[in-house]
Each structure stands twice: as structure tokens, then as C-alpha cells.
């Protein structure tokens, strides 16, 4: 999903006070890890991932891996933090998608 500038700004503002719920260390990212992230995003829509200092991956490499191997959108990479967004399929978990679609 390609996001506009307004949509990205909205998602960044919503994620400003969030703490990362996933982190990447020396083991790096895998398909199994990515499946767990997708499960979490199905209920949250928005999440942060922290790249630890000893990780072999950079935040930009992680963002590229995530976008290449899933339907998750990366609205922002800042420092060692990657912001992830995926629209929820279940109506009871929709929180940010309504506003994101309105801004399109």
C-alpha cells in the first residue's frame, strides 16, 4: 500500500508515544518472525520495531525486508526504529484505518 504524505504524518503522530513491541537482535528477521508481526498488526494496525545495537541489520534493511516479504507498509524509519502499518481486516480492531482512508 502506497501512503500519501498526509497519511504518513497522521500515522507518525499516532505512533509518537508508542513504545516498540518487537525488536531485532543478532538473529535478524525471518519469515516466522514476520508472521508474528503480521498477527500483532492484525489487532493493532500500528506498531514499532526496535533494531538493537548488536543487530546485523540496519533499520532501513529491515524495512526493505518487511515490505518485500509481506503486505505491511513502513511509513517511517527513524534511527533504529521502524514504524509498521497494516490495515486490520476485522472491524473490531479498526482504529487508524478509518482516518488513513479518509486522508487518501
Secondary structure: elements and pairs:
Layout: H1 5-15, E1 22-24, H2 31-44, E2 46-51, H3 59-69, E3 73-78, E4 81-85, H4 97-103
Task: Explain what the structure shows.
The protein has helices spanning 5-15, 31-44, 59-69, 97-103, and strands spanning 22-24, 46-51, 73-78, 81-85. With 104 residues, it is α+β, with helices and mostly antiparallel strands. The chain has a single domain (5-103), classed as 2-Layer Sandwich (Translation Initiation Factor IF3), CATH 3.30.110.60. α1 (5-15) packs antiparallel against α4. The longest helix is centred in the middle third of the chain and has 14 residues, at 31-44. The chain starts with a helix and ends with a helix.
Précis, in short:
Pfam families: CRS1_YhbY (PF01985). With 104 residues, this protein is of the alpha+beta class.
Descriptive key words:
4-stranded mixed sheet, single chain, 104 residues, Translation Initiation Factor IF3, 4 strands, alpha+beta
**Radius of gyration computed on alpha carbons:** 13 Å
Number of helices: 4
Order of helices and strands: HEHEHEEH
Shape: globular
* Quaternary structure state of the chains depicted: single chain
Computed structural class: alpha+beta
Mean pLDDT: 94
Summarize the main sheet: 4 strands, mixed
| Number of structurally distinct domains | 1
- The N- and C-terminal alpha carbons lie at a distance of 11 Å
Amino acid at each position: 500500500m502506497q501512503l500519501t504524505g498526509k497519511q504518513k504524518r497522521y500515522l507518525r503522530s499516532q505512533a509518537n508515544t508508542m513504545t516498540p513491541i518487537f525488536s531485532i537482535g543478532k538473529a535478524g528477521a525471518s519469515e516466522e518472525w514476520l508472521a508474528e508481526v503480521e498477527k500483532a498488526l492484525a489487532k493493532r494496525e500500528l506498531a514499532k520495531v526496535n533494531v538493537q545495537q548488536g543487530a546485523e541489520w540496519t533499520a532501513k534493511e529491515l524495512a526493505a525486508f518487511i515490505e518485500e516479504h509481506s503486505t505491511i507498509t513502513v511509513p517511517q524509519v527513524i534511527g533504529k526504529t521502524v514504524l509498521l502499518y497494516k490495515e486490520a481486516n476485522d472491524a473490531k480492531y479498526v482504529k487508524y484505518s478509518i482516518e488513513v482512508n479518509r486522508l487518501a
